[in-house]
Design a protein that fits this description.
The structure is a homotetramer of 200-residue chains. Chain A is mostly helical and 200 residues long. In chain A, 71% of the residues lie in helices and 0% in strands. The structure holds a DNA duplex (31 and 31 nucleotides).
DNA sequence: CGATAAACGAGACGGTACGTCTGGTCTTGTG
DNA sequence: CACAAGACCAGACGTACCGTCTCGTTTATCG
């Protein structure tokens, strides 16, 4: 009879983001964030949070994902290979900062919370994956990638190193890195494959 | 003056492994594992655990890593490219089972525990990384990989998809997958980098 | 908004009393009593105890005092000197048993817990002291005690030996003792203050 | 074969006193004092303390009592009633300060440690009690106290209020108080007993 | 327009685990 | 062989959150 309070929902998401935002001097890790603190910060009762989300991880998912997807769009106004390059670069830019650390922590939390992992897939991985595969397919159609490649494996191979660095805390995450990934993949690593591919 | 009790140390590591081992019907996730339970299972006091480890994550690191490294050795009796292929395949085999889930949870925990991440690097990532880079270098020397490749990037590119699948819970982790990774990398993805370019 | 659970309160006080009651074969001293055990025995969480009491001593105070005051009332239906005699005798009776040992332990605990001592004064000593002084005043009014005595000092002098025996674990605590106290005080100890001086 | 180290014994007693002495800014209550801290302060191992004493209370007893008895001697160069008055006054002086608080805490500890209480009796209460009774007996012999008094009860009555104030944290502990005790006891409290006794 | 039912804040509750502290015992050299 | 050093088991401490559960108290339709 009484509709869900949009005001509470917003307050909860905002409180969560504020508590996680590293620009806030008292920011918390996802681990140290608690439903109790969110409720307090949002001026909302715990009951209200539990009514609409079933765990901390899900609140964090809701808080982070829409924002993240909006910030790393795929461009449709460019040739596919360039769009791919731009997309990887934009991901690198975002992941290099505090949102990257957040995403890493979120994926970390999902490792021991199957329901959160399910939502992560549904809300993040699957749409993103479809989008990425679509660009690679378009690049094949445009003739800038070989027609005999296994699109899904190649897509995975291009994005994986980004998440590898993000989750294993190695090296830089920047455009130089993502560009190198694409270039390296284009050439292949077999001896002699380079020169041939290179001149055209 | 009084030496550390090796007996206690072993009991703690064994208890931790038993509590995490999914073949045990009452197994726990890394998240639900607690210092308290380890102490109880090991017949040891909490003090003794805290004396030698500073967090649950570090106990788990100690428990898992040595065992894992021992189970996924790099073969030196094979040509480098074959050794690489075998190593990726052995990783896939291990990561496909409960030890993979454990490793994923462990990396997950490290996301919000910088000290644990530091130890993970020191104990796992860096030795492993050096070993992997060494095989790739050997393959270059043996002439089975191109001499102009960026060894470090290529190595990362070969291993990353394995961890991507492990941590994002996508697809199968098996030899078919790791073999495909190597084959795909060898060929490259540019149009025309196909068989013709490869042979001679 | 949610009222305190009277049920929990009662369960905690009862559990405390049960654990301290020497008729219980596994009874504990106040020292060995712990919040943890009370919580367990009462089927209540530690949080609930800490929510309403700030230390073990305060729980014990709450448990003992009301009961004790109820068991050693001052009679108003007797002449004041007789009421005083009866009150001392009833204290002796109670203090001779396990409740006496409890009271002694409680006072013992308060020696190193100023807040508990403050509560002991507020809840026990001050009301009791006022009551006792009032009887002595009434006895003066009734003419059974001298009109020139210092009421407060005399009251203290009459009750002190009871606590002396209780706390220093000396001698018997019984009616013979308390009657002797009153008789001795009545007579005085100066030579010649004997019967001759008293009558007329 | 190796004799008890008198040096260790002294170091332990001194450390205990230092840790309890309120003139030391970091002084501890008897409760917060621990064998561990004494060992540390004395530069001695816990084992050594446990070898010679069986609890914290006993160490404290050893530390305090000799000193205390030496500081509150009974004078033999005065008429007994004056010696009694002086003794009570000297006790009041000592008990008014930090040694009083210590003694109170010590007696408090003994409430839940029968062995400590036994030692307290043996080392403190019994000798002290015999001494006190002896003065009162001497006063009777000298004719300054009535010959018909019950010496033990009277002695107890005179000293009890001091300990009452000490242990219940009431009122002042000073010479005015102890003098009032003796005067009040001398006169008695029965109506009319005062005038008769007073003039002679 | 007043009834009513959901959503809400507040927060008490039984729990689990935390990381710290002490107590008292046991072990291993050293002098 | 007394001792120091200190590791060890045991278990209580007080705190933080968990997720559940009343409680009134809004508040927004719907009869």
């Amino acid at each position: 009879m009484v509709a869900r309070s949009e005001q509470s929902r917003q307050a909860i998401l905002k409180a969560t983001m504020d508590l996680l935002d590293e620009r806030n001097p008292e920011a918390l890790s996802v681990r140290k964030l608690s439903i109790e603190k969110i409720a307090q910060e949002a001026g909302v009762s715990k009951t209200t949070i539990y009514r609409w989300w079933s765990s901390k991880a899900e609140v964090v998912l809701d808080t982070i994902l829409d924002n993240h997807l909006a910030r790393t769009p795929v461009r449709t106004d460019l040739p596919a290979l360039d769009a791919l390059r731009e997309h990887l670069a934009s991901l690198a830019t975002v992941y290099a900062g505090w949102e990257g650390r957040l995403m890493a922590q979120l994926i970390g939390e999902c490792q021991s919370d199957p329901e959160a992992m399910r939502i992560f897939h549904e809300r993040f991985f699957e749409p993103r994956s479809r989008t990425a595969i679509a660009i690679v397919e378009r690049a094949v159609e445009e003739g800038t990638l070989g027609s005999d490649i296994d699109v899904e494996t190649v897509t995975e191979t291009l994005y994986a190193p980004l998440y590898f660095r993000l989750l294993l805390h190695i090296g830089e995450i920047d455009r130089a890195f993502t560009d190198a990934l694409i270039d390296s993949a284009l050439l292949g690593i077999a001896p002699g494959s380079a020169p041939a591919a290179r001149d055209h």
